[in-house]
Amino acid sequence: MNALWDLAPHDVAIFNYLLGSTPEWVSAVGAKVLRNCREDVGFISLGYPDNVVGHIHVSWADPHKAREVVVVGSDRRIVFNDLNGVEQVRVFEKGIRVVEPEPLNFGEYHLHIRDGDILSPRVEVGEPLKNQCRHFLDCITRKLRPITGGGEGQEVVRVLEAVDCSLALRGAPVEVVRNVYCEQKSA
Question: What is the domain range of residue 142?
Answer without folding.
Answer: 3-175
